[in-house]
Each structure stands twice: as structure tokens, then as C-alpha cells.
């Protein structure tokens, strides 16, 4: 019996020793795992392993997911156009030409380059950007965030909102941005501005919505800007302004600056206006708006007093174009437009937007205040002329 006990004790001792050695030198044998999984536990937080697991949620105060969601759809736009250099005054001097002869190449053409940003809005490669980014360009190249580059053609442009639509010249499929709801923004919301400032590469800046509905800035004919303090610099034009979920809320367009750099006052075209222009350009290659042929003027307190107006609301008709729909309908200079199809006209901005939204060819009822009376006039809406290209 004692001998059996000694054998048992020795076996237990040897087993414990073997277990100690294995757990110290080869712990993975006890877990049934491979050595590579031991290395995987040292990955930096926020990464995903080789198994393709999704990234963990953002840390508080981080907008990484919003940036990662929208950045692939924001592109860099490179343009070039041929320009004629200035002729040297000496070539106009007869004495100089007598000794050196005529130089037909004295005003050589050179190529001027420009840059901006854009947003891919469809898988087949439609890109929304600013009109001033591609204006007068005869060559357009678009570079994606992943390094791919494609030539692009101009589908259509709308100078009055400073928007343009491009089409990538390829059959490839592309990542697209998600449009936010038109009424989803509020002052104080966090937004990210994504673009290619100064050509340094794709950059994300953060700020808040400072104001909504900014008008009378003198930037474009139709203005309804989002104001933000997210840094917007040259090269950001046409890029995306996205919310904290990565949805597109605006197209970065302009800044207020005395130095050329960001001063915390940037402006973006809201997604509601951008969507309307995009759909019209993709469908017909242009934007169609209503027009009646009047010159309008804001009613100031001084004008209201001189015209004897007790109510300063409305838009003063300062002039009527000869042969225009307004003249045919009987609208006269000095009338005050106060209503269009039953909707009140508050000021010149609302009047311009109401008339532009009317379908050409339709008849709209205009209410005007003339002297001490109000008149209803039926106006056959015309088509707004396309602005002359510089």
C-alpha cells in the first residue's frame, strides 16, 4: 500500500511540473489557439482585426465615423484652360520690329491651372461642385480619395446659384454621399467641412452652424446660405459640409476674408437648393426658372415715406422690360408686388424665389398695390434668360 502511495505522489509531482513548464513556455497549447492570436491582442484600440470585425463606436467627442463615411465621396477637381499671355510692348514698336522682325509667337498661349473640390452624388459618377471651380475650364480631371484619377465632362452649370454638375468619364462604380433631410439643420449643430484646401490633400475641419438663411451677401442671384465657422479655405470650394452623422447638408462655396484665409465665416449652399439644381441639370442639362421681366427694389423707410406706403412689405417694381410678360399683364413701374398666387411677398428675396419657382408657360396671379388700391393681374410666366457667360 505504501508503495502505491509513493508511485501516486511521484506521478502527481511530475504532472504538476509538466503543467508548470507548459503554462510558462507554451501557454497557447492550453487554450487551443495559435501563436498569431496572441499577437492580435496587442492591436491599438479602435482598429479592426484580420477577421473583418467592424470598428468599435466613436469615443466621446470624436467624429471619426462621420468623416470616414463621407470622405470617400469627396473628390479633388483639377482644371486647366488655355490663356494668352500679355504681349510685350516692344513688339508693337516699329523700330524694334524693323531690326528683329515680326514674331508671330510673341503672344504665346499658356495653360492656367485651378483646383477645387466636389462631391460624388451617384454611383455612376455624377459630381456636384461649384460653378466657379470649373468655369471656363477646357480640361477637367477628378481625383478620388483612394488615388484614382478620371477625366470629367461638364453636364451643366447654374451660375445664379454657383453650382455645376460633372460626369466622370468611366464605367466604374463610385462611393456616394448621403443627402440629409432639408429641414434637419439647426443653429448650433456640429458640422464637418471636407475638401482640398490649398491643394494640400483631403482635409476635414469641424465647426458649428452659425446661422441659416443668409442672404443679401452679393455672392449670387439666389442666396440662402448656411453660415459656419468650420474652416473653409481656397480649394475647399465645391466640397462637402456634412452633419455629425456624415450626411451632406451643404456645398462649401465662399468665405468672408480680408486675407484670403479662413476667419471663421464660411458659407455653404444648402442641400435643398443643391438637390433641385442637380436634378434639373441631370435631367435636361440646364436649370429652368420662371421670369416676368421686372426690375425690383427693396422698400426702404425712405422709399416707403416717399410713396406714402404704410406697410413696407413687398417688392417695389422699379422698372418693367418692354415686351415682357409683366408689361403685357399691365404691371407698371411704381407698383408694389405684395402677392404671387395667394402667397405674400415679404421682400425682394421672397419675390425672386417665388417667381423663379413658377413653371414657364403657366399663368400666375400677381397682386400689386397701386396708389391706394390693390389689383390682381394675371401674368403668363416666361422663361428666365440664361446669364451671359463671361
Automatic annotation (TrEMBL):
<dbReference type="Pfam" id="PF13365">
    <property type="entry name" value="Trypsin_2"/>
</dbReference>
<dbReference type="InterPro" id="IPR011782">
    <property type="entry name" value="Pept_S1C_Do"/>
</dbReference>
<keyword id="KW-0378">Hydrolase</keyword>
<keyword id="KW-0645">Protease</keyword>
<dbReference type="InterPro" id="IPR036034">
    <property type="entry name" value="PDZ_sf"/>
</dbReference>
<keyword id="KW-0677">Repeat</keyword>
<dbReference type="InterPro" id="IPR009003">
    <property type="entry name" value="Peptidase_S1_PA"/>
</dbReference>
<dbReference type="InterPro" id="IPR041489">
    <property type="entry name" value="PDZ_6"/>
</dbReference>
<keyword id="KW-0720">Serine protease</keyword>
<keyword id="KW-0574">Periplasm</keyword>
<keyword id="KW-0732">Signal</keyword>
<feature type="domain" description="PDZ">
    <location>
        <begin position="281"/>
        <end position="347"/>
    </location>
</feature>
<dbReference type="InterPro" id="IPR001940">
    <property type="entry name" value="Peptidase_S1C"/>
</dbReference>
<dbReference type="InterPro" id="IPR051201">
    <property type="entry name" value="Chloro_Bact_Ser_Proteases"/>
</dbReference>
<dbReference type="InterPro" id="IPR001478">
    <property type="entry name" value="PDZ"/>
</dbReference>
<dbReference type="Pfam" id="PF17820">
    <property type="entry name" value="PDZ_6"/>
</dbReference>
<protein>
    <submittedName>
        <fullName>Do family serine endopeptidase</fullName>
    </submittedName>
</protein>
Amino acid at each position: 500500500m505504501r508503495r502505491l502511495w509513493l508511485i501516486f505522489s511521484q506521478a502527481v509531482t511530475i504532472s504538476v511540473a509538466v503543467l508548470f513548464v507548459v503554462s510558462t513556455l507554451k501557454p497557447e497549447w492550453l487554450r487551443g489557439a495559435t501563436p498569431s492570436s496572441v499577437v492580435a491582442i496587442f492591436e491599438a484600440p479602435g482598429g479592426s482585426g484580420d477577421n473583418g470585425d467592424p470598428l468599435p463606436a466613436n469615443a466621446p467627442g470624436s467624429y471619426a465615423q462621420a468623416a470616414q463615411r463621407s470622405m470617400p465621396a469627396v473628390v479633388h477637381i483639377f482644371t486647366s484652360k488655355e490663356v494668352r499671355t500679355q504681349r510685350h510692348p516692344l513688339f508693337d514698336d516699329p523700330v524694334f520690329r524693323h531690326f528683329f522682325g515680326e514674331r508671330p509667337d510673341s503672344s504665346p498661349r499658356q495653360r492656367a491651372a485651378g483646383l477645387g473640390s466636389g462631391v460624388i452624388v451617384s454611383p455612376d459618377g455624377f459630381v456636384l461642385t461649384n460653378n466657379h471651380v470649373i468655369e471656363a475650364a477646357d480640361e477637367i480631371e477628378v481625383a478620388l480619395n483612394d488615388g484614382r484619377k478620371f477625366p470629367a465632362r461638364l453636364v451643366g452649370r447654374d451660375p445664379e446659384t454657383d453650382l455645376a454638375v460633372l460626369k466622370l468619364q468611366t464605367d466604374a462604380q463610385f462611393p456616394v454621399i448621403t443627402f440629409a433631410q432639408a429641414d434637419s439643420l439647426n443653429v448650433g449643430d456640429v458640422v464637418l467641412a471636407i475638401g482640398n484646401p490649398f491643394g494640400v490633400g483631403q482635409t476635414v475641419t469641424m465647426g458649428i452652424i452659425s446661422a441659416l438663411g443668409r442672404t443679401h451677401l452679393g455672392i449670387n442671384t439666389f442666396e440662402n446660405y448656411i453660415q459656419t465657422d468650420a474652416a473653409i479655405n481656397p480649394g475647399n470650394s465645391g466640397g462637402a459640409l456634412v452633419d455629425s452623422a456624415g450626411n451632406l447638408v451643404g456645398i462649401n462655396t465662399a468665405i468672408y476674408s480680408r486675407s484670403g484665409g479662413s476667419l471663421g465665416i464660411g458659407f455653404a449652399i444648402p442641400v435643398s437648393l443643391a438637390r433641385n439644381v442637380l436634378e434639373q441639370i441631370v435631367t435636361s442639362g440646364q436649370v429652368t426658372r420662371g421670369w416676368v421681366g421686372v426690375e425690383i427694389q427693396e422698400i426702404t423707410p425712405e422709399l416707403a415715406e416717399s410713396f406714402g406706403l404704410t406697410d413696407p412689405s413687398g417688392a417695389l417694381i422699379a422698372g418693367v422690360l418692354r415686351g415682357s410678360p409683366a408689361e403685357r399683364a399691365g404691371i407698371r413701374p411704381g407698383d408694389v408686388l405684395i402677392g404671387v398666387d395667394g402667397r405674400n411677398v415679404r421682400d425682394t428675396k421672397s419675390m425672386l424665389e417665388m417667381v423663379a419657382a413658377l413653371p414657364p408657360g403657366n399663368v400666375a396671379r400677381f397682386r400689386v398695390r397701386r396708389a391706394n388700391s390693390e389689383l390682381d393681374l394675371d401674368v403668363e410666366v416666361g422663361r428666365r434668360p440664361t446669364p451671359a457667360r463671361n
